[in-house]
């Protein structure tokens, strides 16, 4: 199939040039629909079109049609309320598969004539989260996009041949858009319209084709399972992976199963493609990409995929070899990637802190089967009140719901640690490593000891009941109350730390009284006295003026 | 609640790190994805792997509606037990 540059796609109808599968679409139909959409957009005076379409053939029509009409296209990452609100000032019309938005067929008019698209006037705006946490809009001209797909074809076109392009990633982002849609359009390779995020579906769709290549991501590739027909799948011409780091063991597993290393693409919405590699080797910059380091050791990119003269500073630490290849050393800022989704921790922390129950909050990443966020939250007085009267699960549920308006579901913290104050250091900072230590630790089972003194054989301890005490979970879900057995246990444990000659064996309790409930965040005064002649440990908990509990713990020698 | 359903609920909690959840919080007919428990597609991948590993079964990659079995705990339990007896 002959190559068509992006700007030529609407010029003339190309017979027998397939575009997509299921349902199939030919170039002539694509062109016709795009030109009709262009007319519809012009009639309606739409200059700025937001497009969110999971059907990538429709997406291609929308892009080409908008460009032909001279309209700018905005590609939002999602259709959440917050996203719409933020982008609305930049948008005349929303085109999506969502019921409230315009759909493609409602916008078609009598077609405009075919034409060459203007390389520098046609523009696409990608939306991603910037380092400050604010949504970042990134403009791409048709020229930049065209340069990039030509470079991809130059590297891998011959090898892909007429392979059908099957993707597991969304095309709202630069990688999916280039690899699943724009590159195959120009190359005349057929693509599957919808993303196939599950391995079983990817296999089924692929094996229906004589030749195929995958546009995938680590989220899928590291979870392929052993239930697939690997001998049949090893026909795959090439496996692309981008969006985040593919762990070497996952890459090796694929190599063993498919007989080829996956091809990893490194880049970002801002920079476009930067480099590629296979099998954990060093990254090779794409032709024409000039990569260097700034004084902080972060990659700086000049590239034909950027506006001419623009230098893009990244926050990715790197180390170069003499031959120009490089190794990545991790992010130098507080943007993290969870399953290829860029998450700005500062943005979510601000969003959390805007809730009336939250004084301040910090987020960190927990690495488990999958990586997720953990939140260390300092509760406000209102938050403490909510915790004491509605329980932990209600509180964290409400905070998750609140955050859900600001971010995708996968960024919602799954682990919560509640405190009165963040453990800031002398510089007023909470280093990320310290934060992660706190998040990884299991919920405490011990009181916080604030002070202790002894007078006339009696110990006086000042305690705080941690908000996060593990015992509160089942006791009780809606109204956390410190169990009496835990109070006795604490009294005995603390006494053993203070009183050397305490006999080891617990023999029972006397005159046990529970007078007032003890709840998360309470300040308690515990008095302890050991009467050695009777083998009795006297304990009493008070909360200010109110007596909470008291009793005598009978203790005896080990072999009595 | 059957033992298998309880086992699946605990598997979901452990495999997906849902620390504040207990098995009794996940109703057998609660939708696992989207509205409901709110799991996402990566959870679906993780859960598929965890189920195959725990119960020693294989998800049939040729069946078109495999992921329908992941709708809720009831359907997942029915799927696991049908595979175990297959």
Automatic annotation (TrEMBL), chain A:
Gene3D superfamilies: 3.30.300.30, Hotdog Thioesterase, N-terminal domain of ligase-like
Domain (AMP-dependent synthetase/ligase): residue spans on this chain: 110-278
Name used for this protein in its record: AMP-binding protein
Annotated SUPFAM superfamilies: Acetyl-CoA synthetase-like, Thioesterase/thiol ester dehydrase-isomerase
PANTHER family according to UniProt: LONG-CHAIN-FATTY-ACID--COA LIGASE, SURFACTIN SYNTHASE SUBUNIT 1
ApeI dehydratase-like domain boundaries: 453-552
Superkingdom field: Bacteria
From TrEMBL, chain B:
Entry-linked InterPro entries: ACP-like_sf, PP-bd_ACP
Start and end residues of each Carrier domain: 2-84
Domain of life the protein comes from: Bacteria
PROSITE patterns recorded: CARRIER (PS50075)
Pfam families: PP-binding
SUPFAM superfamilies (alphabetical): ACP-like
NCBIfam families: PRK09184.1 (NF006617)
Protein name: Acyl carrier protein
Species: Pseudomonas taeanensis MS-3
